[in-house]
Every structure is written in C-alpha cells, then in structure tokens.
Amino acid sequence: MSDRVIHVEDLAREYVMGAERVLALRGLTLSIRRNEYVAIMGPSGSGKSTLMNLIGCLDTPSAGSYWLNGQEVSRLSDDALARVRNREIGFVFQTFNLLPRATALHNVELPLVYAGVSSRERRERAERALTRVGLEHRMQHRPNELSGGQRQRVAIARALVNEPSLLLADEPTGNLDSTTSEEIMRVFAELHGQGQTIVVVTHEPSIAEHAERVVVLRDGRLDSDTRNTKVAA
Amino acid sequence: MALRTIVTQKLKSFFSLIGVLIGVTFLIAVVSIVQGMNVYMEDQFANRLIGLNTFTLRPFPNFNSGNVTDDMWRAWMRRPRISYDDADYVTDRLQTPAITARFCSDRMVLNYGGKTAKDIELIGTEPTYFAIKNIDIDRGRIFTPQEVRLGLPVLVVGNELGEKLFQGLDPLGKDVTIRGIPYRVVGVAARRGTLFGLSLDKFAVMPFRAPARRHICPLNVLDELEIKVASPDLMLTAMSETEALMRARRGLKPNQENNFFLQNASGALDGWHKISNVLFTALPGLVAISLVVGGIVIMNIMLMAVAERTREIGIRKALGAKRRDILAQFVIESATLSTVGAALGIATGIALAFLVRAVTPLPAAVAPWSIAVAVALGMIVGIVAGVYPATRASKLDPIAALRAE
User: Do B239 and B360 sit in the same domain of this protein?
Assistant: First the structure.
C-alpha cells in the first residue's frame, strides 16, 4: 500500500454540457507504484485528459476514490488541492506553460513561492533543478530566448523543484521536433533512473515506447495495461 | 512582480493612472495653493492694508464677506459718521497705550507740469499714520503735527507716483497741483510692492487739514480713525475699550446694537476664510469624483489583465497557487498601479504648487498631510478597485484557465 503513489478505484467523471451528460470516465481502477514509468494512451475522447486532470488534482471525480501517496484527495477543497499539487505533483505540459515575462530561474522558483520557501533557498533549489536538466547557462533567459527543447527542460526543472512524488507529463513532446523529443525523453529516462515516478499522457506510440508500462484507455474504461517488454529487455 | 507587470505595459498603465493622477494632483495643488493663499492673505493683505496690531473705528465694515443684504446696507448708511470729536474723544480717553490717526481718502487727479496722474489715492491724515501703516520714507521727511494743525499744502508721495509724475527728476521740493492748488512734495515713501498685482505705491499723503480735504471728506467727518497698539495681546483690550467709549459717547442702551464698527485684520479676513472653507469643503467631493473615475478605470484595466492572463493564472494554480495567492497578486498589482498614479499625481501637484509660487506672489507650500492623504487614497482606491477583478481571477477553474489562449 505504501508503495503505491497512485491508487484510483471506480473513478468516474461526468460532465454536463447543456442538456447532455457526458461520461468521460466510467469507473476506472488503477494503481501506480513508486518509481514506475507509465504511459497513458488512448484515442481522443477516450478519457485520458480527464484522467490526467484527476490524477493531477486539477479536478475532482464525480464518483470513486483517489489516493495519492496514501492520502484520499478526491474530496478535498480547492485550496487543499492546490496544496497537494504544489507538494506532490510536478506538471509538464505540451505547450510548456512558462510565464513569458519571467526568466527561466524565476519560472522554476514559482512552485517554491507558493510553498512558502524563503527567497534564498528558492534560488538555490531552482538553480540546482536547472542544473539537473542541463540549463545552468540559461538561467537568466526568458522563454522566448530559449529553444523549444530548452523551454521544455525549464518546465521539467520547474516540475521537479519541489521534489514531487509524481511527475505528470501531458504530451510533453507534442510541440517538439523528433530530435528534441528524443532529447526530452532521455531526460525522462534519466529521472526515472534516479527513482522518479513518471506518468506520461500521450497518443504517440513512439513516446509510449519509452515507458515501462503502457495503460490504454477506451471510452472511459481501461482497455489494456501492459508491461513494455522492449524497455524491460 | 506587480511593478514589473506595470513597467512592461507602460502606456496602457499610464492611461489607466490618469484618473488617480488627476485626483491627487488636484488635492495636492489645491491644498497648497489655498494654504499659500491663507498665508498671503494674512501676511500681505490684512497686515499691509490694515496694518499689524491695528484696528480702525468706522461706521461699518469696509471688507465685506459678500452676503450683505439691502436692509443691512441701508441701516449701515443711516449710521452716524465718525466725527472729529469722536476721534478726539477716543484718542484722549483710551487707557491702553496706542497711537491714533484720523483718516480720509479718495481717488484724485494730480498734476505736475504737463503730466497728469489719474486715480491716485489721496490720503488726508496725521504724522502717526506713517508709523501705523509701516510706511518708510525713502527721501525727505514726513509732515509735522504743526503742518497738520496749520493745514499746510505739503505732500508725501508714493514711490511709483513719484516716478510717474516726475520721470527721473527728484520729486522733493517740486509743486504738485491738486484741483488747482499747489502742494510741495516733502517726502518720498519707500517702495511697498504690489498686492494682487495692484501697486501699493500710487498714493499721496497730505496733512489732514490741507485744502484738498474738502474734496475727500465732508467737514467734521472722517472715513475712519486708525488705532495701533504695541502688541497683539493688547488688541482685544483696546478694541473693547474703544467699543465701550463709543457706546458711552453715543448714549447707546445695553439692548441697542453698535452703530459703529471696529475693523481689524482678522475681521477683514472673514470673507476670505469663508471662501477657503468652501474650497476645503468642495475639495473632498471633487477629489472623490476623480478617484472614483480613476478606480473604475483601474478596475477595468485589471479585468482586462485578468482576461489576458487567464493562462498565467491557470499555470500558477497548477503549480500550487491558492485562491488567496491569486487574489493577493492582483490586489497588490492594482494597489501598486494606483499608488504609482498617486505618486505621479503628488509630483505633478508639487510641481504645480512650485509653479504657482514662482509666477505668482502666493507662497504656495505643499502640506505634508496632503501627501500622506494622497498616498493613502491611492492605495485604498487601488485595493478597492482590485478586489473584484482579483476575486474573479482567484475563482477561475485551473483546467479551463490552462486551456485559454
């Protein structure tokens, strides 16, 4: 039990769109253990974005339960969820989602600001995180002065700076060319090697290949959950 | 952080600040100008025109606060004038140490050679007048009590009048003609400057009994008796003493009103104080209007900022910003914006006050309290205007906000 970073049980999410009710997730049960590298796949409309939002504590389920690190988080208030996001989850987005007017360093410091870390410690930890992704020479650059790959590495540094239990990436290479994508996936592999639990949501099989476990959703249900033999080999 | 956002959007921010800026400018400038006006009125107007520690005995006030009704005016005109005997009676019996001067004046035309000076204030009085009004003599002398008693045609002329009439010649010893009678100039007064842009040096002083008296005052009638005491604390004593003397002399019963008036500098300032009170009463309203407008503009700018930065809000929320973090961010931004506006307004207001000081005789001085009020108002307007947009920002759904572009 303590080994499970994520455990969801009968997780359901229903949206009301006008008069229609859309069931995006229909009772999903899934566990992800510490230091697992999991890819969540599925065609559009399969519920993978909904699942990502729920796992990322950006949304709460209509039914079912979600334990993150042993803590039941499916019924928490907005502010309590914000706290969980801040401490437990590092996000990496397809569009990087960096603050355009802030330097790389300041972007990475941001989660620490909301964690209430003192400014000197913030700076030290942000510098360490940027060094970890190989951007020690780009700390004072703004996002528009960085390449796509560098921006995504800033985003990864930001995701890691609070030492979260889960790195959650949503199509992390969707806006990158294939060479840069490979570079980012190497960073993920490296982090995984250092013991980081990683969940990547993607529709690209070539990206999913890097994960050790592939979960496929279809119509809001679990379609398949397989070990990736290629990586294991 | 807030300041940086403002700096990166300079122009838009500047326009959004104008409301607060104008309100605060107005506050600072009006307060400093009105206070400068107060100082000016007290120092220059009252003390120079009426004289320091001086009051005058007259039939009715000569500086009116504007709300004199026709009935009042008619009653004033029926009052007995101040007679020579009244003047002597008060002068002889006043216990408080004081000097007095009989006073009559009117506008008169003066001639010298072919030149004419029109609209000159011709004053008939006694030598004590120069001490009462603090008129220094540049050259020559003042006339003597003997000259007054004999009613000799001698004249002390104001500085500018002397220059105008004699054009470079020394006025001393020259004969000036008033209504056909020559007057010998015995003294020239030192320059007194201007008041409200009007020269205080276009006057001529002659002995009270000189021939031209009949052109400025009827026989046995004075415009006023000027009374000067040695120090401010003697003013009240002297005034109440004079009042008692006059009431006794005129046989007024206790229930009867004074049929004379004692004018002093503070009385003359009543009208001005009323004006300045009106300004100080109207000021908060005017400042409030521009601040409300400024606040609405800032609120709109902040609503736009929230709409434009929805994604940023989403990012911040995903990274762990709580509602109150977002709320605080936008309220601080709004308060900073508004306070910057107030600071610019303070600068403009001070500049305006200095400008007034430089180009007018008003000693406009910036009141420290008005700066404190301006800063506080700026912050309050910013906070109030920022609360609604910031609340909206803090309530955004992180998923929707992240999807926004």
Answer: no
Report the alpha-carbon distance of residue A94 to residue A90 in Å, rounded. 14
**Domain range for B277:** 2-43+272-403
Calculate ∠ Cα B106-B111-B114, nearest 5°: 155
**Model confidence over A18-38: pLDDT tens digits?**
888 888 999 999 999 999 999
Pick from B335, B380, B398: which is nearest to B2 by CA? B335
DSSP B222: B
Number of structural domains in chain B:
2
> CA gyration radius for chain B?
32
pLDDT on residue B6: 62
B35 exposed, middle or buried (CB, 10 Å; 0-12, 13-18, 19+)? buried
- Residue B52 within any structural domain of the chain: no
Cβ(A138)–Cβ(A130) below 8 Å:
yes
A91–B320 C-beta distance less than 8 A = no
Tell me, yes or no, if B403 comes closer than 8 A to chain A by beta carbon: no
Give domain status of residue B50, yes or no: no
pTM of the shown model: 0.72
Model confidence over B105-148: pLDDT tens digits? Answer: 999 899 888 888 888 899 999 999 998 888 888 889 999 999 98
* CB distance A137 to A174 below 8 Å: no
Average pLDDT over residues A89-97: 93
Whether residue B138 is found in the same domain as residue B252? yes
Gyration radius of chain A over CA positions: 17
pLDDT in tens, B69-108: 888 888 888 899 999 999 999 999 999 899 999 999 999 8
Alpha-carbon distance values, B357 to B276, B352, B364, B374 (Å)? 18, 8, 5, 21
CB atoms within 10 A of CB B109: 13
B214 and B327 assigned to the same domain: no
- B181 SS3 class: strand
Cα separation, B236 vs B53, whole angstroms: 10
Same-domain status, B303 and B239: no
pLDDT of residue A1: 47
Q: Looking at residues B185-193, what average pLDDT do you find?
A: 88
Indicate if the pLDDT at residue B197 is higher than 80: no
Positive or negative, the Cα torsion across B81, B83, B89, B95? positive
Predicted pLDDT at A233: 36
Interface contact B10, partner A, CB < 8 A = no
The pLDDT tens digits for B202-211 are 889 999 888 8
Q: Does residue B36 sit in the same domain as residue B94?
A: no
Q: Looking at the complex, does the CB of residue A67 fall below 8 Å from at least one CB of chain B?
A: no
Question: CB-based contact (8 Å) between B311 and chain A?
Answer: yes
Question: What are chain A's domains?
Answer: 34-61+77-232 (3.40.50.300)
User: Given B230, B259, B288, which residue is the final one in a domain?
Assistant: B259
Please say which residue of B232, B259, B286 terminates a domain: B259
Q: What is the ipTM of this complex?
A: 0.93
- Please, what is the end-to-end C-alpha distance for chain A in angstroms? 27
Tell me which residue in A82, A93, A162 faces B317 most closely, judged by beta carbons.
Answer: A82
* CB-based contact A115 B311, cutoff 8 Å: no
What does the pLDDT look like over B296-328, one tens digit per residue?
Answer: 999 998 999 899 999 999 999 999 999 999 999
Q: What is the pLDDT of residue B60?
A: 87
- CA-to-CA distance for A134 and A157, rounded, in angstroms? 9
Question: What does the block give as tokens for A85?
Answer: 């996001």
Residues B293 and B167 occupy one common structural domain: no
